[in-house]
Amino acid sequence: MINESELLAALPGRHVLIVGDVMLDEYIWGDVRRISPEAPVPIVEIRNRTYVPGGAANTAANVGSLGGQVLLGGVIGCDDQAGRLREALMAIKIDSEHLLVDDPRPTTTKTRIVAHNQQVVRVDSEQRVPLSKDLEVQLLRWVERNLPEADICVLSDYGKGVVTASLSQTFIELARASGKPVIVDPKGTDYKKYRGATVLTPNREEAKQALNHGSSTDLDLMEIGYRLMDMVECHALLITQGPQGMSLFVNGKQPLHIASAARSVFDVSGAGDTVVSTLAMALAAGASIEQAAFLSNRAAGVVVGKIGTATVSIEELMVN
């Protein structure tokens, strides 16, 4: 088994192919000094705006911050937000030329207004219409061309329409035929579309919903894990549970619970992307699934201690 120092040293240069719902995360930073006379709401005086990659693009950003080489496929609109997303990716040296343009679809954008380091409100601009067959074919052709260069693949599903059932299944089939592991960050209730993936990384509520149970139903975690493993026929299932840490289910092994590594929590935005990207990088570098899960847990503990959608570096993992 590779030791941790060897694992961290082996991360740079790994190639990760990512397909999914790319987004732009916009932050409006300001101060609140008074309440509006028009309604009982705070008035935010804007100081500045910042833009960072979100969704599948944040997964790509985290791969890049760990020294990985990113192959990013997704769909954007023909709007100002698309330009800002491309600029944000360019700033961290991630190529955006393979992002397809869907004219009628707005670039998915999450705008967060933050005052005194506290999020006041979030405004989403999105369209959840399934990807057209033409764009789906184009995206899958790009995947097929670039699979030989990849060490591992990630499917990042935020339910915005890019990861259709047919795209998901074809993506997994192409990757498996090429001998590439597939990590899926799932969304929604139709987990059958991820059948055959190597690892799934839902949070507990998502996992419960996939079994057609409301979030108010207190299902036993072991039941959730085993039933999902049977449904998806995956090698491993990593269920994240926020402050309660993570639980790893692996075929033929006893479930493993990993306590949260977070020392302080300021913002959970994008923490799931950090888990997926770190898991992918670690597996590509030769880690066991258990080692990769522990490293992902530590990475998540670092990013939730930051404000806004954030990434983690190898140097931070060395000291945390």
Report strand %. 25-35%
Shape: globular
Low-pLDDT stretches: none
Report how far the terminal alpha carbons are from each other: 21 Å
CATH superfamily: Ribokinase
Whole-number total of structural domains:
1
Largest sheet: 9 strands, mixed
What is the H/E string? HEEEHEHEEEHEHEEHHEEEHHH
The assigned CATH architecture is 3-Layer(aba) Sandwich
What kind of oligomer do you see? single chain
Rg for CA atoms = 19 Å
User: What is the helix content?
Assistant: 25-40%
Judged by helices, strands and strand pairing, the structural class is alpha/beta
The overall pLDDT, averaged over residues, is 93
Q: What is the overall number of helices?
A: 10
Give the beta-strand count: 13
Please summarize what this structure is.
It is built from ten helices and 13 strands.
Describe the structure.
This protein has 320 residues and is an alpha/beta fold. It has a single domain (4-24, 54-108, 127-319), classed as Ribokinase (UDP-N-acetylmuramoyl-L-alanine:D-glutamate ligase), CATH 3.40.1190.20. The chain is 34% helix and 26% strand. It is built from 10 helices and 13 strands. It has helices at residues 4-10, 56-65, 80-91, 133-146, 165-177, 204-210, 221-232, 271-284, 289-303, 314-319; strands at residues 15-20, 22-35, 42-55, 69-76, 99-101, 109-115, 118-125, 152-156, 182-185, 199-200, 236-240, 246-250, 256-258. The strands form 2 sheets. Strands 5-4-1-8-9-10-11-12-13 form a 9-stranded mixed β-sheet, sandwiched between helices. Strands 3-2-6-7 form a 4-stranded mixed β-sheet. Strand 4 (69-76), helix 3 and strand 5 (99-101) form a beta-alpha-beta unit. The chain is globular.
